Amino acid sequence: MVPHIVILGSLNIDFVVQVAELPAPGETTLGSNFQMIPGGKGANQACAVGRTGGKAAQGMMIGRVGSDLFAERLKASLAGAGLDVSAVQTVRSQPTGVALIWVDQRGQNSIVVAPGANHDWVPADLNGVRSMFQGARYALFQLESPVAVVKEGLLMARQMGARTILDPAPAQSLPADIMSSVDVLTPNETEACILLGRKPARIDLAECRQVAGALRALGARSVVLKLGDRGAVYFDGDTEIHQAAYPVQAVDTTAAGDVFNGALAVALAEGKSRSYAMKFASAAAAISVTRPGAQSSVPLRNEVEEFLRSRES
After folding, report:
1. CATH for 5-11+40-97+118-312?
2. In what order do the strands lie in the sheet with 240-243?
3. Active-site residue 258, yes or no?
4. Among residues 14, 120, 167, 258, which one is catalytic?
5. All structural domains of the chain with their residue ranges
6. Which of 32, 112, 139, 282 gives a 20 to 30 Å CA spacing to 146?
């Protein structure tokens, strides 16, 4: 079966520790509730596609893991969410990627990633998965894979007829020509500022149009600015949609942006309006922050739909 959505990106095992306060440099602090949870920005977005899409939007994951005890756990997590993992390759030269995550009592986090196998490939390696993009409606990308691989993947997906969504995270500057293959760019405030060569800063709602316009001038066809508890704003030059955040009690914000992107791709791939897609993605992300962990926080489709009905009745 041809996947509706292809996700190219990272697979990590997350080592998560709860702390009262995030430690300062040089500080040792006691934590609790240690967990090992499947994660990685690419795999998180894939999991969100699987759980919020179901049979309506099948997904395929493209990525790399090491030859170690974490690899099968990661693939099993995605397969359990309904993803095709036949394009997740095993390498022996690097371990599976890991992320070390501290989460404070307000749900905020600090994350350090050791990419391992996620960085053990080059653009030419994508020739073996080119056919995976054939017939796909959307392709999702992030920046926990080598930028050169992401650039080639974006171009390949567009050539094969898929619309592309790039989450420019972790925040970094990008080659000038990479944006020409991006249909939807989804930065948060820090990522947007760094892409524009600015010092990271809060973006006021009144500034969103200007910032999005500057990002579109880099080549992206449309922009979704993710503003955390202030919601998200969509721009494509003609249309502007401000989606307010749904008020919830946050427990862990680790994968909220990834859940947003996966759910957004699902709604768009199903042909839903951009306005509904923004609501659907925001609802999925809102549910996710009320739960601990990355993939363990991703809601099912019926949970997202019920959440929306409860908020709009």
Report:
1. 3.40.1190.20
2. 84-91, 59-66, 5-8, 138-141, 163-166, 184-185, 222-226, 232-235, 240-243
3. yes
4. 258
5. 5-11+40-97+118-312
6. 282
